[in-house]
Each structure stands twice: as structure tokens, then as C-alpha cells.
Amino acid sequence: MRYNERELLSLSRQPAEKAAEILMRVPKKGSVLKKRLVKLVVNFLFYFRTDEAEPIGALLLEHCRITKEEENVFSISFIEEPERKYCFECDSEEQCQEWIEALKRASYEFMRRSLIFYRNEIQKMTGKDPLEQFGISEEARFQLASRKQ
Amino acid sequence: MKLNERSVAHYATCDSPTDHAGFLRKRVERHHHHGHHGTSYQRRWFVLKGNLLFYFEERESREPMGLVVLEGCTVELCEAAEEFAFAIRFDDAGAKAYVLVADGQAAMEAWVKALSRASFDYMRLVVRELEKQLEEACTSLAACRKSPRRSSSGRRRHLSNPALPPVQEKQHVLENGYSTWGSPDREGGHTKPPPLPPRRRSAAGSSVPALQESPVSPETTCFAKLHHWYGQEIAALRQEWQERQKRGHP
Predict the structure, then answer these.
(1) Shortest CB distance from A58 goes to which of B1, B91, B193?
(2) A147: closest CA of chain B, how far (Å)
(3) Do residues B125 and B133 make contact, with C-beta atoms less than 8 angstroms apart?
(4) Which residue, of A16, B12, B173, B241, has the greatest Cβ tally within 10 A?
(5) Rounded to two decimals, what is the model's pTM?
(6) What CATH topology corresponds to A5-106?
(7) Which residues are CB-neighbours of A112 under 8 A, at least 6 positions away?
(8) Looking at the complex, does the CB of residue A33 fall below 8 Å from at least one CB of chain B?
(9) CATH number at residue B95
């Protein structure tokens, strides 16, 4: 699958929601924990060798599952392959929880659901559709019912 | 740079919400040995999901051919030999633009609109704005109870809007107020929305007078009466809510 790698690289250089040096292990046979600079930018998680400017790789964080594993450790896996886990070992339990929370909120789909929820609540409380001011109230993606198309 | 391509391809083809889809012709530059290039257009099936624009060889293709990540870009109409052409251009000046051609005026406008609003940042902005509005709506509701004497035009508008119907609603709000979709994991919330006052229940089930039984009608000129009546209802609701809180009800 082709993709605009240049733009993805550019994105990896943008200010991050969250960044830290964390031990990471990819779901490949024989792979071990390695220290990586891990950087969350919009719905992508980039990971770099600590001394390099270009990321080794990126993970799109849609349809992923963030799981707390053992102490200080969490994993990212994807819906269609739940056994293939990217593992991350943090310095502390606190750091681990922070990353879990941040990653769970990082997807576009999460924001979409939040938006629909807030819209609905505001509408119920005030009788007005708050999306009208943005001119996007009719867009299919913001309708409560538009879960599956 | 590696990308979790299998998962990305799966996301492209699964039944998560599609923000826009349709055929577009994609400009392709061809470079010949002698240095001059030809331009041709290839018809592809495009699917927009969130900030990702996928394109497929055919509508029925099971895997995307390509992906355009829509961050740091602008979408504009472009001067091309083709009618109904628009371009996705990136802030990074050296990056190649994608020139796409729609089937007609309406299709082009719909695509430009959808793509302009596709970025994660745009979505985040809207969500934050709504979060703020919800907080304000809750705050103003709470404020009504505290100072029944003071009248402000803001509150008056709210109070004299008995267009708010008694909402029939299942009191069923999952953690963070929205149900999960798709993913097996229940995602944790971010700043939780402030606790909302409980909904008006239908007259049958509630100790609070339903709207229809109001002794005053919206046309009443006696604002103080309306104010007092609504104030009582809110006070009762608030008390109920506080009791439920004490009982540990979320």
C-alpha cells in the first residue's frame, strides 16, 4: 500500500501530545525490549532510535486495544490480530497509566464518539444543536445513527 | 519508515464510519526518458475515514492501493485542464500535491468540504468547543438555583424555553457517557464531562411536576412566577440528584 511517507515524516516532527523514552518490543519472533523515543502525534505513535531524527516506524492508533500487562508494562494490539502485541515497559506505574490513558484517547474514532456525545447532551439541555454554528450539523459522520455505513 | 500496514488496511475496509466516499480521477505524472512528462488520470475509488484518505483500484477491491494522511494540508480548487479538479497540497513545500477530479460540481464541492475538515486538529477543536459549551450549560443551570432573585437575560432565555420537552430517556449512560463501538476494550475517558443534572422524567414516574402541568404558560407576563416555579423544580431535581450521589449512583 502506498502512502505519503514524506508527510508522515513531517508529522513525526510536529509537537507531540506525549513523548518519552520507553522500552519497546515489537511483535516479531525473537525481538527484545529496546530503548526507543516514543512520540504520540494526533492518532499516530512514532518510535525512534534514541539518537536518530527519523522514526523507525509509526503505528496508526485506530481500532487498537491498549492493555495493561504486568507492572509498568502496557501493550498495543490491533483488532484483527489481537495476539500481535507491541509491548512497552515504562519507568514507573504512574507513567504506564498516563500512557494508557493518553493512547486510549488518541484515536479519531474516540473523538468522533465524544463529539456525538457532547452534541447530544447540549441538544438535550439547551434545545439547540451546537454544530449549527460550524455548519457541519448535517454531516453524516456526526449523526448518532451513523455507526455503520 | 515502517507502518502497521495490515492494521491500516483493515481499518480502511472495515465497517467503521466512512466520512465520504466516491470515484475520483487521480492525476498521475508520467516521466519519460527524454525528460518530458505526460499527464493522465486514473479513476479510483476513494474512501475518507477521519484524517485518512484511502484509494482503491476498484470499488470492490479488498485492499487499498494507497493512503493519503491528511495532516498539515490544505484543499483547494485548482486550475487544471480538467473541470471539477481540486488539489490536496501540503505545508511542506517540496511535497507533491494530489490533484483529483470529481464527476461534477456537486461532487467536487462535497469532497472539498469533507477533506478540508478532515484533520485531527479540526476535530479536536470542535470537541473542545463543545466540551466548553456543555460545561457552560451545566453551570448556568446550577446558577439558576442559587440566585432566583437576580435575573439575567441569559437565564431568562433558558427558563422561558418550555420547548424543552420532558425527555423520555433511558437513564443508561455508560462510563464517559458514550457506548463503545467496535473495539472490545472500553476506552478510558478524558476529562469527564461535568455531572449532569438528571433528566426530567415523565409525569408518571416523578415527584416533580411535569411541564404540562405548569400553572403558568409561556405567554405569562409574570416572570417572577415562572422563575419561582422553575426554580422549585430545579431545586427538587438537584436534591434528588444529590441523594442519588450519596447512594453511590454514578
Answers:
(1) B1
(2) 6
(3) no
(4) B12
(5) 0.70
(6) PH-domain like (2.30.29)
(7) A141, A142, B17, B50, B123
(8) no
(9) 2.30.29.30
